[in-house]
Design a protein that fits this description.
The protein is built from ten helices and 15 strands. With 332 residues, it is of the alpha+beta class. The termini are close together.
Length: 332
């Protein structure tokens, strides 16, 4: 029998312990998930078999749609690695009953990309295909530099790196977050008419709570930042460039090329370096210039598919899911 229990603060320790034991990305710790709780009403679920936590689902609900999770880059149903296939199938079956018995019309999953997934976590879209009618909502292309020196690097990127060396730029971890954030914000506004997803205050809050996972690396000249990247460190030796930014002078001196090459050296070529997506959000087309720049480092494209599920035959009833502190759903 599976007990599905909506998350409440009393489960914070249990939830965080599960994230640690299953070697999940730090995004799923509650302190990260809740930094923007005012924008996303948390509707996460815990799955228990007797007193053992066998799965979690980070989620929020908006307009009768359950997102896993709207405020995070990824979101999925994560299993205890000690589960067997039969128990995972029972979890999914109970989840289907749960969705059909509540005012939820569709669900959107954002599974972990393969380069992030560990072998101990099963892939959600494959598992639920027997229970749900999955429809691709959109696809994103993430480019990732392999964890090896033996990659095909374009001459243009090498020339950029050579310029930076000739200009005697310096590389290293930086604590000058404010200057970088000003460079990043100006860059995004002038080139894309948008601002960073995180405010300066938010990124400082997250950096202070996850100092081993969130770091700033920069190329400097005479102490001034010319280019840099905010790196999220994930399990399985993955370094994800959450933000990349360059200055006009940095472009002339090859500063951002320098940052990527030096980051590889800093990590001793032992990490996969994710350079992020090159997909245009509005049209789902490819930003060819951005794609070519990332591919120039020998980065390999990885397809990340966001899945949408239509929930049929909803039974009308009171919105008991919203009362998550008292509601407990038991599936047989």
């Amino acid at each position: 029998m599976i007990n599905i229990i909506p998350y409440c603060p009393e489960f914070k320790f249990v939830w965080n312990r599960f994230v640690a034991e299953q070697n999940l990305p730090f995004l799923f710790y509650r302190d990260y998930m809740e930094y923007h709780a005012h924008n996303f009403k948390d509707s996460s679920l815990l799955f228990f078999e007797e007193d053992v936590l066998v799965a979690i689902l980070p989620a929020n609900i908006k307009d009768y749609c359950l997102y896993a999770h709207g405020g995070l880059t990824f979101g999925d149903l994560f299993y205890n690695h000690q589960n067997d296939a039969a128990l995972n199938a029972q979890i999914i079956a109970s989840l289907k009953e749960f969705f059909n018995s509540h005012e939820i019309e569709k669900i959107i999953f954002k599974p972990l990309p393969k380069f992030l997934s560990s072998q101990s976590n099963l892939n959600m879209p494959i598992d639920i295909s027997c229970y749900f009618n999955l429809q691709p909502k959109r696809q994103e292309i993430n480019l990732v530099i392999p964890d090896s020196k033996l990659i095909n690097v374009q001459q243009r990127r090498k020339r950029g790196y050579k310029k930076a060396l000739e200009a005697q730029l310096k590389f290293g971890e930086s604590e000058n977050w404010l200057d970088f954030w000003q460079v990043l914000s100006k860059n995004l506004w002038e080139r894309h008419n948008c601002y960073p997803v995180h405010t300066y205050r938010e990124i400082c809050y997250l950096r202070d709570r996850f100092p081993k996972n969130i770091k700033l690396f920069a190329a400097t000249s005479h102490g001034k930042i010319l280019a840099g990247t905010v790196v999220y460190f994930y399990p399985n030796k993955v370094a994800h460039c959450q933000y990349l930014a360059n200055t006009p002078l940095g472009r002339k001196k090859g500063a951002l090329d320098f940052v990527i090459f030096e980051l590889q050296k800093y990590l001793k070529y032992e990490y996969k370096i994710s350079l992020g997506v090159s997909t245009l959000r509005k049209t789902m087309g490819v930003n060819q210039g951005l794609y070519d720049w990332k591919a120039g480092f020998g980065a390999i494209p990885h397809l990340h598919e966001i899945q949408e599920i239509e929930v049929k035959n909803l039974r009308p009833q009171n919105n008991t899911f919203a009362n998550k502190n008292t509601f407990i759903y038991v599936a047989h």
